[in-house]
Amino acid sequence: MKLNIYNSTGLLNNYYFQTLSLLYFPGEKFPTGVDLSPNSADYYLEKRGDGYYGKAVLRAGEYSAEGEFCTDGYIFSVPVHDELNAQCAIGKAMVQAGEKLFGFSLPWGYITGLRPVKRARYYLDRGYDDETVKSLFINDHNVSPEKTELSIRTAHNEIRMLEGVGGKTAGLYISIPFCPTRCQYCSFVSYSTPRLLKMLPDYVELLIKDIKDTASVLGEIGVKLSAIYVGGGTPSILSPEHTRRVLGTVTENFDLSSLREFTFEAGRPDTITADKLYAAKESGVTRVSINPQSLNENVLRAIGRQHTTAQFFEAYDIARKVGFDSINADLIAGLPEDTFDTFASSFEKVLSMGFENITLHTLSIKNAAAMRFEKENVYDPAGKLAISCVQYVYDRMMESGMKPYYLYRQKNTVGNAENTGYSVPGKENLYNILMMEEHSSVFACGAGAITKLVTPDEEIIDRIAHQKYPYEYLAEPKGIGADRIKEFYFEHFND
User: Among residues 7, 188, 270, 285, which is most buried (max CB within 10 A)?
Assistant: First the structure.
């Protein structure tokens, strides 16, 4: 996609204009050389009086539309800085042009980035009431009333959950990047071929070493764990013995006196056995996730899932018999072959089973996903089906008493929708909030995992990445970044 940017302010970089464009043109690339895309956008941003003037001209093939907006004289709902002032000018102009050109509005307005709830929490934490924040979202950012309500409800739950969390408490993520098969929509670093699965024993050994090293550093700097999350990939691809060894290493080495939860994302129903879940339970796990994505067999085949709905029900029964009283299920709205009726049927079955957590994702088309290359018209910025499914879940959750407690967005999501975690009160997953809202540090072990070091004021974030792929992780172990971790904490956490 060709972008022509005339930005005399210097406030917004080219990446911002690209992400803005993706809201109406998902999947587009922005090459520096020859661009053969029929789509283009012109953006004009300049300082005018006490505000900023923005103009956007969007073109899709032979059709075009433009919009413009000036914030000079515009009364914001809350005090804003220059960058947000400029975003408002160009964002409102882009939304005007997009609505004219495509005939639909964006549920999240011109808000880009992963964390709209962080914006709501920012203002609520500073004493603004719900009505003021609502005006900020609807009037200033063009967010729909429905998404505004969702954001404010979620922000209040996050604020409640984060009370007393922070300082020298942190999260821990353990990466198991292996799966029995690869889903069509997946872009995670996960390995599924028999040759690569042979790496697992060696991977477990190095992972255990990194867990021990991380525990040693955290003990030295006085950090306790508040939340642990074992994710993937599919962690239940581990054998019962490997499960005990990895999880037992955690409980034996870290200070868990402040621990509120220990999650094992068991994941695929076809890999879950009683022996594995008993091993997890005996190792201190308090919460498991069993993820069907859909309970429609046609949909499961279309996305490359090899399990059956019967295996999902069996895995749930196993988890209950083992003794877990906090179980999550993931569903995805907007999957191929799904309809509103089949999605609603899947959701109602899951809801009726008594899960303490239900996480609703919306299909996001990632660059590395097989679906992107194998299906036509996979991008759908209007996404009427996905949007209706997402709204249906929200309405039913409000009726059932389950509350939204964390939310995030992704690029190229069907219908520009979001991913939301719902929970019965008291069974929320703190780790998800720590990671998504970047409230406090999260330490990570394993291939593809990233440690995030966060200062108490959340203003500075330092990221330490492990090697992306398991074979790199095994071939050239580079440690956990111990010196950087200690230096960061000694600099920012000295009393």
Answer: 285
Q: Are 403 and 397 in contact (CB under 8 A)?
A: yes
Q: For the segment 163-218, what is each residue's pLDDT rounded down to a tens digit?
A: 888 889 999 999 999 887 766 666 555 555 677 778 899 999 999 999 999 999 99
pLDDT score at 373: 45
Looking at mean pLDDT, say which of 154-158, 409-413, 433-437 comes out highest: 154-158
Q: Is 284 left (phi over 0), alpha (psi -120 to 50) or beta?
A: left
DSSP result, 305-334 = ----HHHHHHHHHHHHHHT-S-EEEEEEET
| Strand 403-408, strand 419-423: pairing | antiparallel
pLDDT in tens, 264-314: 999 889 999 999 999 999 999 999 999 999 999 999 988 888 889 999 999
E-assigned strand segments in 168-320: 169-176, 224-232, 261-267, 287-290
Structure tokens at 280: 């997890």
Largest CA distance in the chain: 69
Residue-wise pLDDT for 215-228, tens only, equals 999 999 999 999 99
CATH number listed for the domain at residues 1-103: 3.30.160
Contact 378, 365 (CB under 8 A): yes
CA distance linking residue 466 with residue 447, whole number of Å: 6
For residue range 95-151, list pLDDT tens digits in order. 999 999 999 999 999 999 889 999 999 999 999 999 999 999 999 999 999 999 999
Name the CATH code of domain 169-482 (choices 2.40.10.220, 3.80.30.20, 3.40.50.2300, 3.40.50.720).
3.80.30.20
Hey, which bits of 76-146 come out as E strands? none
DSSP secondary structure, 131-178, as one string: HHHHHIIIIIH---HHHHHHHHHHHHHHHHHTTT--TTEEEEEEEE-B
